[in-house]
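Input record (one chain):
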Amino acid sequence: MDTRRRHDRTDDGPDVDQRPVDQLTQRSRFSKRNLWSGVLFGIGLVAFVDEAVFHQILHWHHFYDLGTPDLGLVSDGFFHAFSWLATIGGLFLVADLRRRQAFWQLRWWGGVLLGAGAFQLYDGIVQHKVLGIHQIRPVPDLLPYDVTWNVVAAVLLVAGAVLTVRTRRRTVSAA
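The corresponding structure, as predicted from the sequence alone:
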């Protein structure tokens, strides 16, 4: 009777989980994946917060406000599905990084902030102003809402950029 577990096979080498792994080397090897998993999670997170707070709780707008209310609700549903796909995709990448002992939390948070800020700035400029598919809140004076929305996006972007640059320039062993 063969008592070896499946991942203990010797015909194709040891499983990734069984190899001696230097975490610092792994962080360096998977630096971009740490960043991009954070970006994806950040996009999904801020999209989810936008959809839950501004669309569902406050009822300020729908993802697409240029049609009927029913079309607005359908567009919210697709937007919600997108936010969850991005969030779950980012978390799957984190799980893979942790399995490889390559998760770099500070770099990941930099990616989260970059993704959140980039999505919010895209939303504030492209969707609100260029395409005009919805506004933050349908009121006569949009300027305070637009400025606040885009300043928060810029702060998220700058904070994410600082963390990303810090982790890029810093030696992996110091992180």
